[in-house]
Design brief:
The chain is an all-alpha fold. About 70% of the residues lie in helices and about 0% in strands. The radius of gyration is 14 Å and the shape is elongated.
């Protein structure tokens, strides 16, 4: 049943995160596809550069994959897409800083 729901993209975020924490790359890919547009859009609204926003969004998901053991169920959501250190990094990049 869960495999069918995963294939159809119907699993809730909490289930996808739980499966991702167990190493299921397909589940994590679903999370990425579900949220990459929103994350990149939020970053674009800060930095104003399409390519940078896509790069930063990719880095956000790469970092999330590497940190799965510390991800809580609520990691993926609009209020959590850009944590303050990441937002500061985007903002500095937009201003030409490092």
């Amino acid at each position: 049943m869960t495999a069918t729901l995963l294939q159809e993209g119907l699993l809730p975020d909490a289930d996808l995160v739980a499966q991702s924490r167990r190493g299921n790359r397909e589940a994590f890919g679903r999370i990425v596809r579900r949220y990459q547009g929103m994350v990149a859009g939020m970053i674009y609204s800060v930095c104003g550069d399409l390519h940078r926003s896509e790069d930063f969004a990719q880095e956000t998901f790469r970092s999330a994959w590497k940190s799965l053991s510390g991800i809580g169920v609520m990691f993926f959501g609009p209020s959590r897409a850009m944590n303050p250190p990441f937002a500061n990094s985007v903002s500095r990049t937009n201003r030409g800083g490092k």
